Amino acid sequence: MNQSDSRCIAVVVTYNKLDLLKECVQQLILCQKYLYKIVVVNNASTDDTRAYLEQLTEEQPMLDVVNEKNNLGGATGFNHGMKRAMFLGADTIWVMDNDCIVNEQTIVPLMDARRHLESAGIEWGILASNVRWTDGSAALMNIPKLSKFWNESRSSNLVKIQHSSFVSMFINANVVKKVGYPIADFFIWGDDAEYSKRISNEYDSFCVTDSLVTHKMGTNQKVDIITDREDRLPRYFYDVRNNFYISKKMGLKETVRFLYGFSKKVVLVSVHGTDRLKKIRILLHGFFAGIVFHPIIEQYHLSASK
């Protein structure tokens, strides 16, 4: 496969991070010889994102913008962006957040890994980048979960994984046709883990260790309901609900592990930090919602554009 034969489409989901979006998109444009289109899903941003994208579209015909009427969450953003990419004829879809800063050292190793796997007759599912923070250290929110047989590939830069994040995930479009799209009903959190796990259950998936990307998070630490800001607390409802659903899909052992971790979290919240009752109510709300949460997994249809 020559790079000119590739129909790789990048998908970026954004909400109210215009400065980071500009850097993200400009870096993608510098990689345009490897890309067929750049799809940006604007999740009803209230800053100047829409005006910026309208102007840039006039200058860059490879840019394709989906403007949502409401903020439907990152999960729906990736769902709609991937549908648009499939409608545009993608053979690979390269998904990322708006604070994901790429360059040729990100995309070229992903394409090399694709060629290597396909020449070996391997129908791969996803290829994840090696995500770094701004200081070059590992981005703690984006460390893939390794497969039990992580060193199955003889290639030194391919590590077999179970799941990873949507921060520079390279997805085989043929696989999308078979397993469907990310679950839009997740809203936020866990959509990437569920989707990549769904794929890796059926298709070999890898972290490409020499595909380097920078994730410009504000801080390089895992978020936690005990220490997080008050305005971010409601989103932990989705964290609990979605991960409860994922654990149930994975079987009894993972469900028991989730229940233990959840119980431990409730105890910790009850004795540490502020707004304890509010946090406990959010956790319990997510838990009980997770008992009956059975979201729809949308399948690929050629006519769907978003």
In words, what does this structure look like?
The protein is an alpha/beta fold and 306 residues long. The protein folds into 2 domains: 3-215, Spore Coat Polysaccharide Biosynthesis Protein SpsA, Chain A, CATH 3.90.550.60; 230-292. The chain is 41% helix and 19% strand. It is built from 9 helices and 10 strands. It has helices at 18-30, 49-59, 73-87, 104-119, 173-179, 191-200, 236-250, 252-271, 276-292; strands spanning 8-14, 37-42, 63-67, 92-97, 100-101, 124-132, 145-146, 158-163, 169-172, 204-215. Strands 1, 2, 3, 4, 5, 6, 7, 8, 9 and 10 form a 10-stranded mixed sheet that branches. Helix 7 (236-250) runs parallel beside helix 9. It is globular.
Could you give the count of β-strands? 10
Radius of gyration: 19 Å
Strand content: 15-25%
- Helix fraction, binned, reads 40-55%
What does the main sheet amount to? 10 strands, mixed
Structural class: alpha/beta
| Helix/strand order, N-terminal first | EHEHEHEEHEEEEHHEHHH
Instruction: Count the DSSP helices.
Output: 9
Terminal CA distance: 28 Å
CATH architectural grouping of the largest domain: Alpha-Beta Complex
Segments where pLDDT lies below 50 for 5+ residues? none
The CATH topology assignment of the largest domain is Spore Coat Polysaccharide Biosynthesis Protein SpsA, Chain A
Give structural attributes.
306 residues; alpha/beta; Spore Coat Polysaccharide Biosynthesis Protein SpsA, Chain A
